[in-house]
Amino acid sequence: MSADNGIYILKTPKGDGFEYRVAHLQCIENVEWDEEAGCCSEDPDIQIKNARYMWDGCKVFVQETDALSFALKLESGLTILEYGISSIDIDREFDPSAPAPPKTHVSSKEVEQTRLLREAEKDFRRIAVMAIDRANQIARLIKE
After folding, report:
1. Same domain, 49 and 12
2. Cα separation of 18 and 13, whole Å?
3. b/e per residue 22-50 (b: at least 16 CB within 10 A)
């Protein structure tokens, strides 16, 4: 099972400069999820809405080096960090007062549980087919 995690530095414009927010996240692809369309999107308006939820409450840095230093401190406290430290740029201001979408994202744990349930269902079907085949073989032998 994959940890599907990383430390992500979100870079957004603010006035003449930028703001940086750092978070330890899983399923980073959720930043691109368009709930209405039911698929990922490269639309920065969609991405910033999701980012408001994902980086909600994070400390804001105005210097990229400070954000990276903070990310390195976070990294040192983690046992598993599958994707390391990465930067994500969204060309929209991070307005914390704007509404964030409700949490509809699926965690990697939920994805893994669903995958295991589907595998168990396939296994059950294979066993059922094998049992029916065996029963048919027995029925043919009895008729002979």
Report:
1. yes
2. 4
3. bbebbbbebbebbeeeeeebeeeebbbbb
pLDDT tens string 22-81: 999 988 998 998 888 888 899 999 999 999 989 988 999 999 999 999 999 999 988 888
- Say which DSSP state 40 is in: E
Q: 133 with 99, same domain?
A: no
Q: For residue 132, how many other CB atoms are within 10 A of its CB?
A: 10
What is the distance between the alpha carbons of residues 93 and 52, in angstroms, rounded to a whole number?
10
Which runs of consecutive H residues, i.e. helices, occur in 16-107?
A: 44-54, 64-76
Which domain covers residue 97, as residue numbers? 5-103
What's residue 24's pLDDT?
93
